[in-house]
Specification:
With about 260 residues, the protein is an alpha/beta fold. About 45% of the residues lie in helices and about 10% in strands. It has two domains: about 140 residues, 3-Layer(aba) Sandwich (Rossmann fold), CATH 3.40.50; about 90 residues, ProC-like, C-terminal domain (N-(1-d-carboxylethyl)-l-norvaline Dehydrogenase, domain 2, Orthogonal Bundle). Strands 2-1-3-4-5-6-7 form a seven-stranded mixed sheet.
Length: about 260
C-alpha cells in the first residue's frame, strides 16, 4: 500500500487526500502552517506540498530529504527545480476545478487530466501510479511548457467564471436569470468538443453582422462594453474576419452604424 502525506490541507490538498484514501492509499496526518516540517518526508512514499505557489520553494527547503521519498507539488505553473534539494521530485497538477474538497475529490476520480513531470524513474513511476489509481489521464509536461499550459487552464476555468459573471450582469438588465443561459453554455461546450472551436462559432461576430453588434453595444452599460468588444474581436479573429472597430458609445466606425 502506497503512503502519502500532505503539507497544506486546503482545498486541493484535502481533495487529493480524500481521493487517494478512497483509492486505497494510506494517508498520513497532514502538516499545517506553523508545524515543524523537518521530518515530513520520513515514512511516506509521496510527500505532497499543496501550499500556495508562492511558498512552495520555502516549504521544500524546510524538509529534510528522505531517501526514496518522492516530493511533489500541485502547482500548475511551477517547475521541478522549485523542489530542490530533494532527489526525487514530481509535479502533479490536476486539471480540475476544486471549489471545495468534497467536490474536488469526486472530480479527481472521474477521468480527470493530470499534468505530470518527474526528474527520476522512481518519481515518474509514483506520479503515474497516482494518476492510474485515480482513474485519470496523464499529460507529460516538460518544465518549459508549464506556464503556457497553466495560462490556458486559467482561461478555461477562472476566465470562464468571469465571463459568466459578465453574462449574468448583462442578463440582469433584461430581468433574465443566469440560469436561463447555462444550458446554452453547456451545449456550446459540447459543440466545441464535437466539431472544434471554429466550426462551433455562431452569432453576429461569426456572420460579420456589425449592425447587430453595434446595437448590442448601445444597449450595454458602459462598464460592460470593453469586455464585449474584446470578445467580439476574438470571435472575428476565429471566424477569419478582418477587424471591424466599434466605438465604446455603440456607434460603428465602419460607416454601418
Amino acid at each position: 500500500m502506497a503512503t502519502v502525506r500532505i503539507i497544506g490541507p486546503g482545498r486541493a490538498g484535502s481533495a487529493l487526500a480524500l481521493a487517494l484514501g478512497a483509492a486505497g492509499w494510506e494517508v498520513e496526518p497532514p502538516y499545517r502552517r506553523g508545524d515543524d516540517l523537518a521530518h515530513a518526508a520520513i515514512g511516506v512514499d509521496l510527500l505532497v506540498i499543496a501550499t500556495p505557489d508562492s511558498v512552495v520553494a520555502d516549504v521544500a527547503v524546510e524538509i529534510t530529504p528522505a531517501p526514496g521519498t518522492v516530493v511533489a507539488h500541485l502547482a500548475g505553473s511551477l517547475g521541478l527545480d522549485i523542489l530542490e534539494p530533494h532527489s526525487h521530485r514530481s509535479s502533479i497538477h490536476p486539471l480540475v476545478s476544486i471549489p471545495r474538497p468534497d467536490v474536488g475529490s469526486r472530480r479527481l476520480v472521474e477521468g480527470a487530466w493530470f499534468a505530470v513531470a518527474a526528474n527520476s524513474d522512481g518519481a515518474e513511476r509514483l506520479a503515474a501510479q497516482v494518476v492510474s489509481d485515480l482513474n485519470g489521464r496523464e499529460i507529460r509536461l516538460p518544465d518549459e511548457h508549464r506556464v503556457a499550459y497553466h495560462a490556458a487552464a486559467c482561461v478555461a476555468s477562472n476566465h470562464l467564471v468571469a465571463l459568466l459573471a459578465h453574462v449574468e450582469r448583462i442578463a440582469a438588465t433584461a430581468g433574465v436569470p443566469l440560469e436561463a443561459y447555462l444550458d446554452l453554455v453547456r451545449g456550446t461546450v459540447d459543440n466545441v468538443e464535437a466539431m472544434g472551436a471554429r466550426a462551433a462559432l455562431t452569432g453576429p461576430a461569426a456572420r460579420g453582422d456589425t449592425e447587430t453588434i453595434t446595437r448590442h453595444l448601445a444597449a450595454l452599460d458602459p462598464a460592460e462594453r470593453p469586455t464585449y468588444q474584446a470578445l467580439v474581436a476574438e470571435a472575428r479573429r476565429l471566424a477569419g474576419h478582418e477587424p471591424a472597430p466599434v466605438s465604446e458609445n455603440g456607434h460603428g466606425t465602419n460607416g454601418r452604424a
